Amino acid sequence: MSSALRTNDANTADSSALSAESRDWALLNAGPARRAQVLQPPEYLGLPDCQHLALGDTLRLSAHEDLQVTQAESQRCRLTMLGFMLSWSHPERSNKAILEALMADADGFEATVAATNEIGGRWVLIYQTGSEVRLIHDAGGLRQVCYAERGGTVWCASQPALLAGAATLVPDADARRFLIAQSETDPEYWWPGDSLPYLGARALLPNHSLDVQSGDVHRFWPNADALTDRKDLGEIRDLAARRLSGVLQAAAARSPLALGLSAGWDSRVLLAACRPVIDDMTIYTARPPTMPASHCDFDIPCQLSKKLDLTHEIIDHPDTVDPGFEAIFNSHTYKAHQRFAAGLQAEYLAFRYSKLAVIGNFSEVVRMPYRHLIQDGSDVEAADLARIAGMSDSPFAKRAFESWMPSESDRHGYDVLDLFYWEQRIGRWLAANCIEFDVGWQDVLVPFNIRSLIVDLLACDEKHRDKNHPAVYVEIMKSLWPDVLDLPINPRPRRSLLSRLESRVRRLFR
Hints:
The protein is of the alpha+beta class. It is 35% helix and 17% strand. The protein has 17 helices and 17 strands. A six-stranded antiparallel sheet has the order 2-3-1-9-8-10, covered by helices on one side. A six-stranded antiparallel sheet has the order 4-5-6-7-11-12. A five-stranded parallel sheet has the order 15-14-13-16-17. The radius of gyration is 23 Å and the shape is globular.
């Protein structure tokens, strides 16, 4: 483990030690196959370090040996799960025990899907009977599934380059033009709709299932029972607190955890939820090269950790990435986001796959992140979605969003902008990022990635879900660990005297 990159507040990392620590990337067990999987008939994929599993007479699963693959079978069906599942209500349950509970509680595919509403983790689930093979993934779609039909056969893989190699796909010229243009303006570019860079290839979106035999995709959520009645703030607080605390205890029973702490809302809520396991986990703050010590995302975590008597580690990100790590990072997935490479290198050196990364994403959908950008949310068009996604100049993106746009009847009362953030920003941008994070971490845990948790939070009155000050989050923290609120969350920097005087003058002469 890198002593240079794992430090306390008083002794941050020395970037000069980086080259010595990164001299031998051959030890890094990563590359195109890490936590990757390909589901294909009739033969296994010829990748190194793969485990192989026959799913009946025709389907063949090839998965990297580092990816957990769990099966359970009954007279009714067979369940195959890739990744990891967590039960917040039964933190002691293993992957196998969770699958067995799903089969015991559910009769049929729809009932099985509904039974996963309380399950966290990052996973793909394959449901098989004698007549059907259906596939779903976790609530946020964070264990990515790409698929394509070739010659009457449906192929699935964890990322587009693997899919293209297995199914011999042809690049999409329009997609390539989109990527070139988008990557020039957005360092965190993402694929719109269910699009992928190859002709005939698609990504399975959150809240959708895939028929592996026909290639048909079906939206299973929201449904007629999805929109719950508005709930009391106290009731939602208690439900959310139990789920967040429970899923973190379930994860801690499996692996050491590392929570990245900033000045923001998401990591502060998770810090409060970590209280029962805080003594057994790592709290760290990542510090980009340009971040001064006075920056709130650095200063506040340091102050808060000291106040709460937490061991707090600083991971200084280097200015540049080592060429050896960069080659592995780029080979890991299709057109990886370069802005993440140096940070992941530092985090790999800090923990060497010994920790499960805990991140606060997905909760943003609760705080209505896009609502302020469009005045009338009832009349949203694909062009509006392209604009708020920063893709307004792309006909490719507009077509993709037009294809995605759920009808009013399909939304069952949910706001289209909230679903857009859930299924696009989370299901496409974050899902792709998680694959990249696999290079630097044992795996990625998103505690908010529980459908019932998000649904309950969305049932909270909108006045309690304000983007800048969500009262429901404050209540959750008060119930779990009130002391985490002793320092401000996302404080606004104080404006200069000149700036404040200019604002007063403008108000006087309006």
